[in-house]
């Protein structure tokens, strides 16, 4: 029970830290849309910011941690801190050189595209020219955030969870500051404000790297560049390369979707981005927190051949994810326009933009539980050092997404692209879960998830029935605020009460943890 208590505390540390960064992220996006609006410039900025962020997800939340954490943990246990830090230095050295090469190549491609876009009637729109320029400015952020992800992974293994979870806070503070400074200096000049935001991204990246780096130095780490090959490095490469290939497919999926959205219209990227920010709240806070804590547990249980212990950990992780993701999906669907109006209807982002983003948010929310389950299942394969199966499934999901997008975008525009993402997410989650269940049997998962699903649907129906009552009494922003202030906590209360009535098993575990004195 002591281990469970520590796990819960670590999950809460990561969740609260990530929650803070997500709140600031929403404020950042609200200010961005208030000063830039939903137009070619904002779409260009979001597109340019997406590219280095792809590598953050590729390294920080994908292949890097999947390959690094098991080997760093094993080296720390068997060889001590000195040997583990030496391994870390070797990986940092290699990562820095590779990332610098990628950035130089990326800037070159971006500048070449800009040159030809100026002369092309097909790609001469402001969103293409500004998107290329902003991409060139922000690409160096890729180096900073990927190295920061490596440092944070090492801190997690050493038992430090709070500070790594706060890294996005520094980025959001930097971007928010750059928006306010840009708005004061360049009133009404959206392009100039966006360039200030690009500078803010780079400043935030420096903070994201050096603040965790100082904590790691306090733990005894000192950087010493090395390209020497060791057995640990070779084992890392053996795990990293197929994991990288699989994660690359996932990020290519996101990049292609954004490029198609850029082609659809001036507003498609911004509309999809706004909706994705809300969809990423439960994914970024709870999915990330749960997987961050459970992935080392799964790796250790697998290494010790503890089949029963492994199944127990994985089952608990699935139930914990669904406990949050399913009601989040239903809640966003039920309150989509009110949430968008409350958070984003400021300045240049008006009621018409809310109406534009609402169906996109509703459709995209359907994918929340599936994206979460696909991520956990992939880490399940990684924990048993099988990187190839998730890679193959990701490649198939990419084909499904691209095919669906090409078929749907012509008729449905941005809605078609979001629908393609959801279809691909469902396909990936279903296939990964089916393949993984053949290896590891789960313990009493089905009936607990059925309770969660039933309680969530009943909660959603309750919100749908109650919402018109509030809307008839108030209007505009006040109505949206009232709906959020009253219906969100009421929905949580209804959901919790229904789970209690259904005798949801995790309530007993939570009570034991709350009563325990550590």
Automatic annotation (TrEMBL):
It comes from the Bacteria. Involved in peptidoglycan biosynthesis. Transports lipid-linked peptidoglycan precursors from the inner to the outer leaflet of the cytoplasmic membrane. Keywords: Cell membrane, Cell shape, Cell wall biogenesis/degradation, Membrane, Peptidoglycan synthesis, Transmembrane, Transmembrane helix, Transport. Pathway: Cell wall biogenesis; peptidoglycan biosynthesis. It is found in: Cell membrane. The chain crosses the membrane at residues 31-51, 95-117, 137-158, 165-186, 192-216, 236-256, 276-296, 317-340, 360-381, 393-412, 418-437, 449-466, 478-502. InterPro entries: Lipid_II_flippase_MurJ/MviN (IPR051050), MurJ (IPR004268). PANTHER family: LIPID II FLIPPASE MURJ. This is Probable lipid II flippase MurJ. The keyword Disulfide bond does not apply. Belongs to the MurJ/MviN family. It is a multi-pass membrane protein.
